[in-house]
Amino acid sequence: MVKLYTAAASDDFDLGRVQSLLEQAIDKADDWAIWDQVKSAVAETTPPPRSLPSFIEQTPWLRNTSSFANSAEHRQYVDGVLKEELGLMYVGLPKFWDTYFSGMDDLEMASEAFFKQCVEEPSPMFSNGWTGWPTDAREDRVLNWFADFYKSLATFATDRRPDLSYHRRPLAKPNQPIDGSVGIRKMDIGFVSDSAAQKDTKCHWSQILVPGELKSNPSADKASEAWLDLGRLYHLWISDESMGIRQDWRYRV
Description:
Blueprint: H1 2-8, H2 19-26, H3 31-45, H4 75-86, H5 96-101, H6 107-120, H7 139-160, E1 169-177, E2 186-192, E3 208-212, H8 223-242
Antiparallel strand pairs: 1-2, 2-3
Helix pairs in contact: 2-3
């Protein structure tokens, strides 16, 4: 479907390829008939596999990110390969909140109540921006700010739902490799499945629920860079999952 969408957006696309599909959709045909036309349209817009030169005749080259044993070793190649491998990415998807978060009880009311507290308390945490946010965005100061913010959020959650127990905590390890990863990886900040985790706690990569990465380069604050960052994290997830390290991330992230 992505290939069909990409082909349809090009200037040289032949509308005749999807004419039957459009006619079936306008006539409100049965689903099976429409999907049959979709498959035909996709088959027409998908070019046949290109013949590759003999492996012996050519210098070996990397075709996809699965070829990298450790992406840190080949960073200069990864970005270009990721662009080709990821294809289209979408932002601003309709009904995203309803699809992924509507089933979480009390989430919207709790979010509004917490933000109201941040604005109205005697020493507001939010006033034309988050209070105390380090203007120089130095890593250590950002991590300290986030730790204090999390304490306020945890206190609010405990007061609101004292019956609940919390099994995850934030953890910052910007300068220490995390054991258990396929490659050598560090985590600026993230959430770990250890309710007693402290600053000096050691953890295994399988305990990381959400890895976070801090960026302070203004020139990298743009959609294209964010696009690649997401791709790198996705590749990290897939490579570790293939080794059986984080098999349930897809249900947590």
